[in-house]
Design goal:
It is built from seven helices and two strands, in the order H-H-H-E-H-H-E-H-H. It is mostly helical. It has one domain. The radius of gyration is 19 Å and the shape is globular.
Length: about 170
Protein backbone atom coordinates (compact mmCIF):
# COMPACT_ATOMS: atom_id res chain seq x y z
CA UNK A 1 0.00 0.00 0.00
CA UNK A 2 1.42 3.38 -0.96
CA UNK A 3 1.49 6.38 1.37
CA UNK A 4 -1.73 8.37 1.54
CA UNK A 5 -1.27 11.85 3.01
CA UNK A 6 -3.96 13.32 5.23
CA UNK A 7 -3.55 16.96 6.24
CA UNK A 8 -5.99 16.40 9.11
CA UNK A 9 -3.19 14.65 11.02
CA UNK A 10 -1.25 17.88 11.39
CA UNK A 11 -4.41 19.86 12.14
CA UNK A 12 -5.17 17.47 15.00
CA UNK A 13 -1.59 17.61 16.27
CA UNK A 14 -1.73 21.42 16.24
CA UNK A 15 -4.87 21.22 18.36
CA UNK A 16 -3.05 18.93 20.79
CA UNK A 17 -5.30 16.03 19.77
CA UNK A 18 -3.94 12.55 19.00
CA UNK A 19 -4.00 12.10 15.20
CA UNK A 20 -4.34 8.74 13.45
CA UNK A 21 -0.64 9.05 12.56
CA UNK A 22 1.97 11.41 14.03
CA UNK A 23 2.70 13.81 11.14
CA UNK A 24 6.10 14.90 9.91
CA UNK A 25 6.72 18.64 9.81
CA UNK A 26 9.62 20.79 8.67
CA UNK A 27 9.31 24.55 8.72
CA UNK A 28 11.39 24.84 5.56
CA UNK A 29 13.21 22.38 3.37
CA UNK A 30 15.74 24.04 1.08
CA UNK A 31 15.83 23.52 -2.65
CA UNK A 32 19.35 22.08 -2.42
CA UNK A 33 18.21 19.33 -0.05
CA UNK A 34 15.15 18.60 -2.17
CA UNK A 35 17.36 18.40 -5.29
CA UNK A 36 19.71 15.87 -3.64
CA UNK A 37 16.90 13.68 -2.37
CA UNK A 38 14.82 13.79 -5.55
CA UNK A 39 17.81 13.50 -7.89
CA UNK A 40 16.65 16.50 -9.92
CA UNK A 41 17.59 20.17 -9.77
CA UNK A 42 14.82 22.09 -8.04
CA UNK A 43 14.56 25.86 -8.45
CA UNK A 44 12.09 28.58 -9.37
CA UNK A 45 14.07 29.44 -12.49
CA UNK A 46 12.98 32.56 -14.35
CA UNK A 47 9.67 32.78 -12.48
CA UNK A 48 7.61 32.21 -15.63
CA UNK A 49 4.34 30.31 -15.36
CA UNK A 50 6.02 27.26 -16.91
CA UNK A 51 9.01 27.44 -14.53
CA UNK A 52 6.75 27.84 -11.50
CA UNK A 53 4.60 24.93 -12.62
CA UNK A 54 7.65 22.68 -12.99
CA UNK A 55 9.11 23.87 -9.68
CA UNK A 56 5.97 23.20 -7.67
CA UNK A 57 5.33 19.88 -9.38
CA UNK A 58 8.73 18.72 -8.06
CA UNK A 59 8.45 20.61 -4.77
CA UNK A 60 5.03 19.16 -3.90
CA UNK A 61 6.09 15.69 -5.04
CA UNK A 62 9.05 15.83 -2.63
CA UNK A 63 6.77 16.25 0.40
CA UNK A 64 4.57 13.38 -0.78
CA UNK A 65 7.63 11.18 -1.48
CA UNK A 66 9.03 11.83 1.99
CA UNK A 67 5.79 10.99 3.82
CA UNK A 68 4.53 14.42 4.83
CA UNK A 69 0.84 15.20 5.20
CA UNK A 70 1.40 18.84 4.27
CA UNK A 71 3.62 20.97 2.06
CA UNK A 72 5.33 23.93 3.72
CA UNK A 73 5.77 27.10 1.73
CA UNK A 74 6.05 30.78 2.50
CA UNK A 75 6.65 34.03 0.69
CA UNK A 76 8.82 36.48 2.60
CA UNK A 77 6.89 39.72 3.10
CA UNK A 78 10.07 41.77 3.38
CA UNK A 79 10.53 41.29 -0.37
CA UNK A 80 7.55 43.54 -1.04
CA UNK A 81 7.67 46.15 1.73
CA UNK A 82 7.89 49.64 0.22
CA UNK A 83 11.19 51.10 1.38
CA UNK A 84 12.19 47.81 3.02
CA UNK A 85 15.73 46.55 3.24
CA UNK A 86 17.07 48.24 6.37
CA UNK A 87 17.74 44.90 8.04
CA UNK A 88 18.50 42.58 5.14
CA UNK A 89 20.26 44.99 2.79
CA UNK A 90 21.46 47.68 5.21
CA UNK A 91 19.39 50.23 3.28
CA UNK A 92 18.25 53.54 4.69
CA UNK A 93 15.05 52.76 6.65
CA UNK A 94 11.73 53.99 5.25
CA UNK A 95 10.38 54.90 8.69
CA UNK A 96 12.46 57.22 10.83
CA UNK A 97 9.80 59.48 12.33
CA UNK A 98 6.17 59.38 13.37
CA UNK A 99 5.40 61.36 10.20
CA UNK A 100 7.10 58.64 8.10
CA UNK A 101 4.96 56.08 9.93
CA UNK A 102 1.79 58.03 9.20
CA UNK A 103 2.67 58.24 5.48
CA UNK A 104 3.78 54.62 5.14
CA UNK A 105 1.58 52.76 2.60
CA UNK A 106 0.58 49.87 4.89
CA UNK A 107 -2.68 49.53 2.95
CA UNK A 108 -0.77 48.70 -0.26
CA UNK A 109 1.23 45.80 1.21
CA UNK A 110 -1.47 43.09 0.79
CA UNK A 111 -1.82 43.85 -2.94
CA UNK A 112 1.97 43.94 -3.40
CA UNK A 113 2.23 40.60 -1.63
CA UNK A 114 -0.51 39.05 -3.77
CA UNK A 115 1.11 40.36 -6.96
CA UNK A 116 4.55 39.00 -6.01
CA UNK A 117 3.56 35.65 -4.51
CA UNK A 118 0.12 34.93 -5.97
CA UNK A 119 1.53 33.05 -8.99
CA UNK A 120 3.65 30.90 -6.67
CA UNK A 121 0.71 30.03 -4.43
CA UNK A 122 -1.38 29.28 -7.54
CA UNK A 123 1.27 26.86 -8.85
CA UNK A 124 1.65 25.30 -5.41
CA UNK A 125 -2.10 24.68 -5.28
CA UNK A 126 -2.24 23.34 -8.83
CA UNK A 127 0.22 20.54 -8.00
CA UNK A 128 -0.95 19.74 -4.48
CA UNK A 129 -1.25 15.97 -4.07
CA UNK A 130 -4.58 14.49 -3.00
CA UNK A 131 -5.01 14.62 0.77
CA UNK A 132 -2.41 17.35 1.32
CA UNK A 133 -2.73 21.03 2.15
CA UNK A 134 -0.11 23.77 2.38
CA UNK A 135 1.17 25.22 5.64
CA UNK A 136 2.96 28.54 5.78
CA UNK A 137 2.10 31.73 4.03
CA UNK A 138 3.62 35.06 4.98
CA UNK A 139 7.15 34.51 6.22
CA UNK A 140 8.62 36.91 8.71
CA UNK A 141 5.54 38.16 10.53
CA UNK A 142 4.80 41.74 11.46
CA UNK A 143 6.99 41.76 14.56
CA UNK A 144 10.00 40.33 12.74
CA UNK A 145 9.59 42.48 9.63
CA UNK A 146 9.58 45.81 11.48
CA UNK A 147 13.38 46.05 11.53
CA UNK A 148 13.35 45.82 7.73
CA UNK A 149 11.78 49.27 7.32
CA UNK A 150 12.70 50.87 10.66
CA UNK A 151 16.23 51.66 11.85
CA UNK A 152 17.18 48.47 13.66
CA UNK A 153 19.20 50.45 16.20
CA UNK A 154 16.06 52.39 17.15
CA UNK A 155 13.79 49.35 16.97
CA UNK A 156 13.94 48.63 20.70
CA UNK A 157 13.02 52.23 21.52
CA UNK A 158 10.18 52.08 19.03
CA UNK A 159 8.83 48.91 20.62
CA UNK A 160 8.46 50.80 23.90
CA UNK A 161 6.09 53.24 22.23
CA UNK A 162 4.33 50.81 19.88
CA UNK A 163 1.25 50.81 22.13
CA UNK A 164 0.63 54.39 21.04
CA UNK A 165 0.48 53.25 17.41
CA UNK A 166 -1.72 50.17 17.82
CA UNK A 167 -4.96 52.07 17.55
CA UNK A 168 -3.72 53.79 14.42
CA UNK A 169 -2.18 51.35 11.97
CA UNK A 170 -0.39 48.51 13.76
Amino acid sequence: MSFQPDYRNIVQAARNEMPARIPLYDHKVGDGIISKIMGEKVGIGDGSEEALSRYFELYDRFFLHMGYDTVTFEGCITRVLPGGGALGNHADPAIKTREDFEKYPFDKVPALYAERFGPQFDALRAHMPEGMKAIGGVAIGSGNSIPDYVDVNKYVLMMRTVRECRGDKL
